[in-house]
Amino acid sequence: MSAAGALQKAVFGQLAGDAALKVLIGADGVHDHLQARSHRPCVFIAGIDSQDASTASEAGEEHLVTLEVRTGEGGNRVAEEIAARVRALLNDVPLVLAGHALVSILHRRTRVGRNAKAKGHVAEMVFRAVTE
């Protein structure tokens, strides 16, 4: 499995296994991709952009992990609350990756707003992860 695949699996497991997040989004509210008929609110892995970050002595990759929180109409508050929980679950947390080592995962930014195309509010979150 690639480092990006192992990272996606670890992120998904971390989010899907959290009882407090389940209270906010429901038991089946975490997805590894946007689903056509996913209920709201939900969190999904929108993408992972990876690039080489090897040094002279170590192989490595840098990954920008984009997550989206989607809620229905009614304001940014719910999206912000869910995004705060996601950040607490992933920022600087020592996730275990199959076949790879996670050096770090840190929150880079969150943008929250109404999205007419998504028919509700969206929090787009980006995390930077480094793997070896």
Description:
- With 132 residues, this protein is α+β, with helices and mostly antiparallel strands.
- Helices cover 27% and strands 38% of the residues.
- Helix 2 runs antiparallel to helix 3.
- It is elongated and about 50 Å long.
% residues in beta strands: 35-45%
Low-confidence stretches: none
Number of helices: 3
Mean pLDDT: 93
Number of E-type strands: 5
Terminal Cα span: 13 Å
| Order of secondary-structure elements | HHEEEHEE
Instruction: Tell the overall outline.
Output: elongated
Strand order, largest beta sheet: 1-2-3-5-4
Main beta sheet strand tally, sense and closure: 5 strands, mixed
Radius of gyration: 15 Å
Structural class: alpha+beta
Helical amount: 25-40%
Task: Give a quick rundown of the structure.
The protein is 27% helix and 38% strand. It has 132 residues and is an alpha+beta fold.
